[in-house]
User: What shape does this take?
Amino acid sequence: MPKQKQVFIYFFLILLAIIIIIIIGSIFYFTLKSNVKITESSSPPSITGFATAVTSATVTNSLPSASSVSMSAGAATETVGLARTAERLTCAATITDLNGCVEVNPVSGLFYRTNLANPESGLAGALNWSNRYQNGTCVADAADTCTGGTDTTVAYNCTFTVQSFVDPTDAGPFSGTTWTCNITGSDQAGAGTSGTDTIEIAQALNLEFNTSIAFGSLALGATKENVTTKLNNSGNNKFDLAVSGYGVSVKDHLSFNCTPTGNLSNTSLEYMFKNQFVYGASGNNLSDDDVTNSTLNLEKLDFVSQTTTTAINTKSLNYPNETIYWGLLIPANGVGGTCTGTVVLTTAADNAAT
Assistant: This one.
């Protein structure tokens, strides 16, 4: 083969190899380029066959809110317990936390006379039992607990142990106001939005007194003065007292029926509020009908004036008290034996402001 022809063939093969290399390189380059991701970081980007990007976001906190607050299952008026006893009143609410109900903790409640200034201040704890109570550890309702996950609501109950001397609002000096239950849910960021409900506390007149008025043994024509009956007001309103009595049956004009002989008229028994007296001089005769003493004004217990401690026995509190003094005259003749009768004491609310 001629030498010129060989050179041409070699040159053609070299050119063909270069073209093939360029084509293969281009294919590899564009394939690699389509699979490359660049990771954002503070350091220079690195190019690999495959990479990931780290993402982040912060969800802001949403404080809890209280709604559907209901005191005593929606009752309009609540009557507190018997004398020297307490009534457990429950205030319910739904607590909502849009970040999830698992974040709700704690839930607290206040129960206070609505017109009370600054109900969250004053005596520590729940010691101002005339007009303010608190519960810092309300509990989740077993029937509607938080299930976690996407659940955002949970029901809570706040219980308040309300004393018998709590200020009434259906009558008396505080008749222009009510009682308010205020419930607040909190999470790790703080207290949320409160919810409230109102209710009336009913007036309760609770009179305590010794039920025996004993004059002992008396001779015919004898007089016994200033036998006492102590009165306690363990209710929640000031009151006056009406007095009446009978020997055998109502309105029989008697104070005592004697066995085996005779009776004593109702004028034989006299009484006086607050002060001792001389029989026949200044006492009031027992009457068949209620006679109200409008000057008694037996106040209710004002708990603020009591000594406040963390543990208080309400049975031994110093309830307001007063005394009735009694006097009896035995006729000079016509009676004998054991004499018994009945005195009726009836409370009459004194609703004047004190």
The longest strand covers residues 86-96. The chain has three domains: 1-50, 65-201, 207-349. The two ends are 139 Å apart (CA to CA).
